[in-house]
Amino acid sequence: MNRLRLLFVLLLVTPMLMGQARPRLVPAVSQEEIEIAYSFTGAELMIYGAVLYPGGRVPDDPVDIVVVLKGPEQSVLVREKQQIAGIWMNAAQARFRSAPAFYAIASARPIGEIVDERTAAIFELGTDNLQLSPASANPPEEARRFVEGLADLRRRNGLYVEQSDTVGLTENVLYNARIDIPARVPVGDYSAETFLIQDGRVIAGAVREIRIDKKGFERFIAAAAENNAFLYGLAAILMSLLLGWAAGALFRRF
To answer: Pairing state of beta strands 174-181 and 201-214?
Structure first.
């Protein structure tokens, strides 16, 4: 009976001891809220922090820090155009439930040199490993083609970015990463995920939340368009008519 009780205690304690043996990330961000005004031309977000090792013993083997900034999640409909009878038209489409409007990954070297394909797919490390949750019943090969097409389109628009030389790590303890925020970044809630990787395995992770929002007149216009769509559309039409009439009157005078 005593042996069974001792075995039971060991089974309970072992997971806790194993959990204490893992390092822990303590991340911080330079800005928890980024405000977009009319003069906004982009920003640089700094993610920095420290790695706390059990017992304060820093490993001799090198480690890697990878930072992912993504958000906000949105439903996306992707259409594919084909030339049929000499006319370009939408021939196929696919819908995805949750695709990040913006995705950026920062590391000190290419992701393929840090983790294998399986680990990269599990943790969505890299634009080619995003899990977009398809909502339409496309065949697997066709769905994958749409995923690659969406990622390529957003890469060309500067919304999906991979930076392989923007992470610094000092003595395996202090780290910092820089991520460029483009001027056309969507507003919403973002998550900054930091991963500690050693020998191709993710051994620790941490998340910080970030908010990107408009301010001033831009915020007023965005809120009006979202909360009073009919009045906003009517005001836009009236303003267009007024500006057209004013331009016509001005040209008639000169």
So the answer is: unpaired
